[in-house]
Amino acid sequence: MKFFCLFFLLLSCTTYTGKISSDSPNLVHYTSEHNERQSGKILIPKTPGPHPGVIVAHGGGWNSRDYTDMDSVAKSLVSHGFVVFNINYRLAPAHKHPAPIEDLDQALKYFKLHANNLKLDPKRIGLWGYSSGGHIVSYFALRYAQDPERKVQAVVSGGAPYDFTWYPYSPIIKKYLGKFRDKMMDEYIEASPVFKVSSSAPPFFLYHGISDKLVEFAQTTAFEARLTVLKVPVERHDVKWWGHATTFIFSEESVVKGITFLEKHL
Predict the structure, then answer these.
(1) What span, in angstroms and rounded, lies between the C-alpha atoms of 132 and 28?
(2) d(Cα 212, Cα 228) in Å, to the nearest integer?
(3) d(CA 118, CA 112)
(4) pLDDT tens per residue across span 216-234
(5) Quick one: which of 214, 52, 45, 29 has its CA closest to 106?
(6) CB–CB of 39/114 below 8 Å?
(7) What percent of the chain has pLDDT over 90?
(8) Distance CA 88, CA 74 (A)
(9) How many CB atoms lie under 10 A from the CB of residue 24?
(10) 1 pLDDT exceeds 90?
(11) Please, are residues 157 and 131 in contact by the beta-carbon 8 Å criterion?
(12) Which is deepest, 114, 145, 208, 236, by most CB within 10 Å?
């Protein structure tokens, strides 16, 4: 019964459909390993390019799920004229931090390398992630904010944890990093996006359910404050009433605002 409930919930994931049609998604492997976890689907608008691009990262606590969770977001983006790379990445506990960050790095390299064939403008690339995917894209964008080969131009992140030090006994983060917080505080700090914010960071759009019990809404407001202090352009959208999963599934306004944000910055 739980499986069927989740199935129908995922079918209900909101979309924001534009006027641009696209080719059928193309499954590619972004490393030479041809590993399922290092693959993704690329969606290309049928209109002439070059187009801005967005790499999309799914949630699942760094230890489960796959790119199909982000299909609705990817379809919304391509229908508004973005080339989209909806990726898988290696999962914990077999692959700990920074494995997903390294995979996103490889996906970005693949995206840029094949820019001509994808009708992609490699100088206009953004990232979008939800939950642990939001952590991955935020960490990557901040870590490489001053790297000309890796710097992205905008980030959309929803429902993500930005400061791991809030969680001394999280079994989910333990799988991702290896131990509880007090056994490896330095590693918890290093893996937290909030501690990597600099004035070189790209613009951020943040959204979060105010009733989120899995990742506290305050994670986003605290992260927003850090970005603001360092004068990084940031917009925040608060999703009323809903929690972690329901914000992802039902908040069409978040998708609309996220795409509008990317249209402005890319």
Answers:
(1) 22
(2) 23
(3) 9
(4) 999 999 999 999 999 999 9
(5) 29
(6) no
(7) 89
(8) 13
(9) 8
(10) no
(11) no
(12) 208
Give the predicted TM-score (pTM) of the model: 0.94
pLDDT digits (tens, 9 = 90+) for 148-206: 999 999 999 999 999 999 999 999 999 999 999 999 999 999 999 999 999 999 999 99
Mean pLDDT of the chain: 94
CB-based burial, 59-94: b 16+ in 10 Å, e otherwise: bbbbeebbbebbbbbbbbbbbbbbbbbbbbbbbbee
pLDDT band at 10, cuts 50/70/90?
A: very low
Report CA torsion sign: 61, 98, 107, 231.
Answer: positive
Residue 24: what pLDDT? 85
The tokens describing 18, both together, are 């534009």
CA distance 177 to 172: 9
- Burial zone of 197 (CB within 10 Å; 0-12 exposed, 13-18 middle, 19+ buried): buried
- Beta carbons within 8 Å of 124's beta carbon, 6+ residues apart: 52, 53, 153, 266
pLDDT of residue 128: 98
- Residue 45: DSSP 8-state: B
Q: What integer pLDDT is reported at residue 156 of this predicted model?
A: 98
Angstrom distance (rounded) from CA 116 to CA 125: 14
Where do we find the tokens 């199935």? 7
